Amino acid sequence: MIEADLYYDVDMHNWKDALQIQLPPNAKFSDSFEIYWIQAVAAARLDRPVEARASLGKFRQSLAEWRESQGPSWDAVWGPVFSVALTEDESWTMLSEGKDDEAVTRLKTAVQYERDHPMYYADVLPRPVSEMLGDMLLQMGRSTEALAAYKAALDVAPNRLDSLLGARTAAAKSGNAQLSDEYAERIRKEGGLIISRP
Question: How far apart are CA 122 and CA 137, in angstroms?
Fold first, then answer.
């Protein structure tokens, strides 16, 4: 249930709800890294840098303890995936602290890794890193760059609704109304809705 709530809040950009996710009763600190991951992103998206930095610290510590409990064979396979998640948290935290250029540069390193090592996102990560980059650039008002990032995300995870919504918005804000309409039509054909988020 926690994982479902986490993924739902990520896709809906419901950052306030994400901050309300509670650890299950008797949950181990080392098993709770996903909650700290989304709460770092959520706090940063809500412009709460102190909370973002605190959640980032908990994510690092919890993940380190969990990795240690799993052993080196696990880390050889999954370590790079969680390094990507850590980079996402670090980047959003930097952005909330006003380190815009540093945040974008940091996140782009994970996008490059994603490009070189394609992953199946439904089972591995909540969303493509390039989609997160699109969100970050769009938030910064860099809509043309954001559009390129969303296009890259759709190459990794074709027809993913959140990337299509982002691409539609970025195209509109960059002055390409025709392309924005094309993305809207793709969303409708996929059975999605043109939604607003919290």
Answer: 24
